Structure formats: structure tokens, C-alpha cells
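Lecture 7 notes. Example A: sequence first, then its C-alpha cells.
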Amino acid sequence: MSVSIGNNNGESDSNSKIITIAGPPNKTIDSNSVVIGEKITNRINIPLKSGNLGDLTITEALASGIALDSFQINADNNSDINYTVDSQPSFGDNGTLSWNLSSVQNNSSDNSVDNLVLEYKAFIKDETTNQSGDTFLSVASVNYNNSLTLNTNSTSITLKEPEIEITKTLNTTGPYVSRR
């Protein structure tokens, strides 16, 4: 997929760029229903064609009741993707999270499409504003070279109360001790 970025009237000018991408980014989560304190794994797959892509900024807006726990950035299938991390969020950050990568390059020699994968864990904070039945919607975006921004698909999670079960058993077999 090639996208030409130019001026508003569709004509090429000195600021025009052609960005070739392999397809839109995709986002998945490991659970749609969580309790306070539970971690949610989010996975953003960014398909990359062979060659030098330049800079990427991955942005995710977390709801106020959710915070970042941890993350990792990898290439799938032992791909040969190189990049430099210029900035990244930290544990406990919430709101808008940004990962800024520069010099992104897929060194695949077979012109295949490989995925750069951002996988992060976020946790539901124990706050009075987080109530059972609350739904949190999330869409991440990927910006290519400050020119083209593509959004991932939308994901949602619903907050639920923990289900606690207490089981009592009574041992009715002897020996019995009687006190008089």
C-alpha cells in the first residue's frame, strides 16, 4: 500500500512524500472482562515491508482508571527489524502513552512483510471512579515519519466485580470428645 502525502489540492510539490506501508496496524487484547488490579495484555502489530521506513510513533490513550505496567517491543518470526527507541513511557503512566522509534528498518532479504510488535501490560487501578460495568474503549495510532497516521481497530474491556465463593465443610466422622 503506497500513500502519497502532498498539498491539499492533490498536486505534487516539494513537500510531497510517498510512504509505502504493508497495511494498517492491528490491536488485540487478551481479555475483554477484568477486575481491579488485573493486568490486560495489549498487542499492537505493525506490518513493515522490507526497507527503511524512517520514524514511527506509536500512541495509545489509556483511560484514567488504567495505568501502564510493562512493555516490550519485538519483531515477529525472528525478523531482522532494527530501530532506535528515542522515548518511551514508564511504569504507572496513564493518559496518552507514546513510543517514539527512529531509524526503523526491515532488513528482510526476501521482500516479505514482517511485524514490529509492541506488547504492553496495563492494570486497572483501585480507584473509586472504577465501578463494575464500566467499559473502557481503546484505539492506538501509528504515525509514519510525521506524515501519515493510521489507527488500529478499537478494543474494549469491561470492569467486573470479583466473584468470591466461600465453601464450608463439616467433618462428621469421629472421634468425638465429650466433656462433662
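Example B, a different protein, same format:
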Amino acid sequence: MQRLADINVIHVRRFTQHADRCSHAVFLGSIGDHFFRQFPAGRERQKGLAVPLFELISIALLSALLWFWYDSARVREIAIRVAQRACQAEGVQLLDETVAVSRTRPARDDEGRLVLQRIYRFEYSETGDNRRPGSLVMLGPAVVAVNIGLRLVGE
């Protein structure tokens, strides 16, 4: 069985052999724990956690994309409920039981905050044989306008 001092000597020899092959090598660790880190020539050793800029940008973009997907799904569910209630109130039938986003853009709400304005389209029917277009404007999660459209009223 090797002694701890002998193991240290073996690791130091390996480190020096490794350092000869590399442009820069840094020996980190304590007795029994030896770590080798290589750095390219001409680059100083960085202290602390070094995260490349590409990874930071990728994480930020992925987070923004996940937020947008989650927020859009939440607002779409609100829009479906509002369209169903509006069609019920007007005595018409919401076709396909869904809404489709037709436009998304940044806008300011009443308090001056920057939120997403979404315009949803849906179709409804008065008799079940025809299709009429309707629209719904959402500013963030708030409903701004519901348009069922003009209908002919017969006697």
C-alpha cells in the first residue's frame, strides 16, 4: 500500500509532465485532491465562476422564449373564455370552441407599463349554417374589446 506522501509525489510528477506538454497548466488542490486546469497561451487565469457570453445569452433567450410561451397560453385561455361568454350573451354559437392569434405587438397599458397586445380572431354562427368573423383585443391579460360584428335582425 502506498503512503499518502508517495501518492503526492506521483501526482506532482504527472503534473510536471502535463505542464511540459501544455502552454499553461495550473495545479489546484490539497493533499489527495489534485486538479489540473489548462488555459490557452496568452490568457490569464480568471478568478470566480467564468461563464462564457454565448451561454449567458442562450440562457436569457431560452428564458424569454419560455416566458412568452407560458404567457401566451395563459392569455389565450382567458380569450377563449371571454369569446364563449360574449357569444352566449349575444345568443350565437362560438364555432370550433377556440380563438386564433392574428397579431401580437408591444403596447402600453393604462398605467404606462409595456405589455403585449394580442388580437385574436374567432368564428361564430347565428344559425349553425353560416360562419361570421369575430375578434377580441387583449392588452396583457386584460380584455380591451370584443367585436361580434353586425348582424341582420329579421322580424
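Note on Example B: The first helix runs from residue 4 to 21. DSSP finds two helices and seven strands in the chain.
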